Amino acid sequence: MAGALRIAVALPHLGVYGGVRRFLELGRIWVARGHEVALLTPPTGGEARPWLRFDGRVGTLEELRPGRWDVVLSPDPALFLRAQAEGALRVFYAVLEGAGGASRAWRRADLVLANSAGMRRYLARRGVRAVDAAGGVNLSSFRPGDPDPRPDRSRTRAPVKALVYGRLSRPRKGSWAAARAVESAARAAGVPTELTLFDAPPDGAPEPKLPRPLSIPCRWVLRPTQEELRALYADADLFVSGERRAGWCNTAAEAMACGTAVVCTRSGTEDFAAEGETAAVARWPWAWALARKVAPLLRDPAARIELGRRGRERIAGFAWEHTADRIEGAIRERLVRRSDG
Fold it and tell me: What are phi and psi of 155, to 5 degrees?
């Protein structure tokens, strides 16, 4: 099937949280290629305005009409089962292991996408053959500073700057474990270290607060703009992620794209984080395990710089454009197969 595609993406909201970035980025690329893309949310689906620029259409699920769409795509199992548009290819984007209702969604899908190698393996164990839709990162938005301040700073006795995604409201993000790992490693290494945590809580949610004060200097940056977030990554010497259950770890990928040395778990990072090569990967998502990976990098500025360099080279292969290519190709293949069948 050639020509422009009509793609409806069913999402619970269009806010900063919940992995919505993936669909704003993919939608932006597809619209630029001439496809019609609409982001559709429930009429009462929370934030209904995209938090990133999006040149396609925004509407509600009431726009799902027979014959109107070539593709209906959703990462949300409940919305996927609800989003009915007769004649459209039904595409389920698996983004999180163990999501409620996911097994029903992938059984009813015409095409299943997986957002990481770990998710593909998880689905394969359940007899589901999923298309590789891993990625990505916006390499034009996330990049090192020019000039990069870290090499010069590494040659001084300035404190090491560590960065953690501070989504404390989601225990599976491992934010508290990551923060404690930085604290413990700084004490063990005897290296002055400053920690910054960032978060963008949903409207109306309480502002995050650590369970206890840390023994190292610590600050919060709340609701950073995209440029402010890039600047945080690009200024950090070290990014630490303690994810326990992730499909694709956006924050680790973004930090890596900015040339920051990354310490992480295997959760959501297997595609791009290779232990000792592109990242320092802890086997367990516990503070002590992360601290063992952080401490050597606090002591060795040259190792941090080199790890960040190799990480940036690796993550360059995961631009959103590549993900958009793979998904579009899989969709066209299924549509051709269906029309021929």
Answer: -90, 0
DSSP codes joined into one string, 137-193: B-TTTS---SS-SHHHHHTTTPPEEEEEE--TT-GGG-HHHHHHHHHHHHHHHT--E
pTM of the model: 0.91
Kindly provide the b/e burial profile for residues 127-141, where b requires at least 16 CB atoms within 10 angstroms of the residue's own CB.
ebebbbbbbbbbbeb
User: Are 243 and 267 a contacting pair, CB within 8 Å?
Assistant: yes
Residue 206: DSSP 8-state: P
Equal CATH topology for 6-136+319-340 and 150-318? yes
Residue 205 identity: A
Q: How many Cα atoms occupy the beta-carbon half-sphere of 220 within 13 Å?
A: 15
The CATH architecture of the domain made up of 150-318 is 3-Layer(aba) Sandwich (3.40)
Residues 6+ apart with CB under 8 A from 214: 179, 180, 183, 195
Summarised one tens digit per residue, pLDDT across range 159-208 is 999 999 999 999 999 999 999 999 999 999 999 999 999 998 877 888 99
Domains of the chain: which residue ranges?
Answer: 6-136+319-340, 150-318
In DSSP terms, which residues pair with 196 in a beta bridge?
163, 219
Contact residues for 69 (Cβ-Cβ < 8 A; gap 6+): 6, 7, 8, 85, 87, 88
Which class is domain 6-136+319-340?
alpha beta
Q: Give me the amino acid identity at 26.
A: L
Q: Is pLDDT at 133 greater than 90 in this prediction?
A: yes
Q: Measure the CA angle with vertex 136, ends 251 and 304; round to 5°.
A: 50
- Give pLDDT tens digits for 194-250: 999 999 887 788 899 999 999 999 999 999 999 999 999 999 999 999 999 878 999
